[in-house]
Please model this.
Amino acid sequence: MKITAEEIWSAVRAIRETVPVIHNITNYVVMNSTANALLALGASPVMAHAEEEIEEMVAIASSLVINIGTLSPAWVRAMFKAAEAARKRKIPIVLDPVGAGATSYRTRTARELIHAVPPEIIRGNASEIMALLETNVKTKGVDSTASSDAALAVGRALHEQSGSVVCISGETDYTVGPAGIIQTRNGHVLMTRVTGLGCTASAICGAFAAVTQDPAAAAAEAMAVMGIAGEIASARSEGPGTLQIHFLDALYRLSGEDIERMLKIEAGP
Amino acid sequence: MKITAEEIWSAVRAIRETVPVIHNITNYVVMNSTANALLALGASPVMAHAEEEIEEMVAIASSLVINIGTLSPAWVRAMFKAAEAARKRKIPIVLDPVGAGATSYRTRTARELIHAVPPEIIRGNASEIMALLETNVKTKGVDSTASSDAALAVGRALHEQSGSVVCISGETDYTVGPAGIIQTRNGHVLMTRVTGLGCTASAICGAFAAVTQDPAAAAAEAMAVMGIAGEIASARSEGPGTLQIHFLDALYRLSGEDIERMLKIEAGP
Amino acid sequence: MKITAEEIWSAVRAIRETVPVIHNITNYVVMNSTANALLALGASPVMAHAEEEIEEMVAIASSLVINIGTLSPAWVRAMFKAAEAARKRKIPIVLDPVGAGATSYRTRTARELIHAVPPEIIRGNASEIMALLETNVKTKGVDSTASSDAALAVGRALHEQSGSVVCISGETDYTVGPAGIIQTRNGHVLMTRVTGLGCTASAICGAFAAVTQDPAAAAAEAMAVMGIAGEIASARSEGPGTLQIHFLDALYRLSGEDIERMLKIEAGP
Model:
């Protein structure tokens, strides 16, 4: 499956022109930074988690992003309710299984969400994705520093198990969908020193899924735009503080030429 | 009703000299950024939401800001308790009805708060203010991009209904009080790309209400200072990332000359 | 007790090399900024507060930081559970009694935490530390602007009462431990205009406690690094907005030479 710079730029323009409402049920740590990233890109974030209003909020959204980074029982109930409401309305769901594998509460919650309402896109690092697998995959100690091959095997296995597009972020991002694999290689290592840029990637998957029909294309577009904005920002930054600020500016100013010039994407293997 | 640059500057100096404690019960998304804005301006923010301590916290505050941006039942109970404690202590209350109209939970909560303890100031965008009205106002689809006339009609209607000063922010900010209308026209469109600057405006209304007796004057002072700091910051920014940082610096460095030179305010119509 | 620039730099390098996991149960206002500070320094922050997972999360951490800045009953229960799990695993605990003295809920919770599981380090300002004392200390109205002598008396008293290392931050930071007192004098007044830098100091105590056996040394190292990074950042900043960004960059770029050149530390009195 191939995604071109033109397609990515066209999706960015669609976000800027249609300003899709992205409903986020996310963790306390990143609420501000993900809302700012969505606004900078051109989307319209809303955050709501109360069972009392979750269905009404889903009803005005173009996609739903669920992030389990700071779970508690009331929030988990709201996530299930929101996912069911999103499914009824046929809007895309993105799941970010933050910390799956670290505690059984997170692993169980993420697995149950996937069973109840399979999301269009699951985005995480290799160890989080690994934790969601219910069958054994031959890997040698896959974690977030996993080898590419191992990450890929895990991504394929979760895609087969869940039917969801699985996006594993790392130095190379792998997006595994029904039409094969897309690899994106944009980004900068300094981005790992800013909290929640993975969560931001998931939120941005939600924005692209609101304007791009195919979830695998949407996820790959999101990863490319994240990575390119991160590279632009890193080149101007002296550390993770300035990076997070320039990253928002870069999302806001991103042009078709930037994407054309910087995109590192390929289909396969 | 007329507010001069001298009066605004005098209120800023009063905040810097008396460092009023502003108690915020606000949403998760903006807690950090509103606390930073209050500190940059010269006030002293506190955040507390537990029913166990809310009355004691109100007891050390000079004003109370209630923001319904990420509601849940325990927080709603705390908001009522805090509002009643503020009323008993006769400190001003600012209500920000974030998302009223988007879900019935928010609309209902904001209306009930206004009934139970009418706030001194209600600040929102046109569609939020519209949602709080209990009578029909002749407008054509008022929303946050409403025409000036429609926004004004809605503001007047809510002021008559509630007795509160009603501040509708937008390209022009309308502050509707018993002595008439104040229009402020400071600000920059890039500010709409930073999450929670509306919430920040409400928090800053709280700071000015702590030092300015008349709530309408306090609200107009706050909107002018927000807008002027936003203009100063926008002129130095390349996007919403740098804007939010320079905005805090601009609040911190704001001078009487800045206000004198940049203020766009008028009474009426 | 004496701490040298070499020892501090050696601890910084140990954090960067071993990337210790610091489990934070902290307040909503500062979650993002403390996570970013820990990442910038080289540690690995996790945030989790659900009773359902708190013990498993402690099990992967190298230290635990408890901050009572936005309490509610479910969070308090999680704090106790986490503290007990940390004690069983013998990992260091840092307590930040934010707002102790402001409400009885905070004072009581902090005192009960200290009784149940005495933390290795308690870090707060003079008025917060004062509120934790259960015996009278002769001071004249100690608060966060307390005189040095009064702060010191209070710190000594709480250290004797609790057995914890007590770190009182202010213009001079006093670290009171069994081997005496360490004074650090780094920092800049502009840091008081950024929300949560005290909370960040406590989180960073957690990082140093993960690599430095002696809690008093760890606390003094943390205060020195906070202050030096703050001075570097302040010199480049025009206000509290740019300060918070440059502070993260400074933590990230901090060198042994910076520490050697800038450190203001002394043993005694």
Q: What stands out?
A: Chain B touches chain C through 29 residues (CB under 8 Å). Confidence is low (pLDDT under 50) at residues 139-145 of chain B.
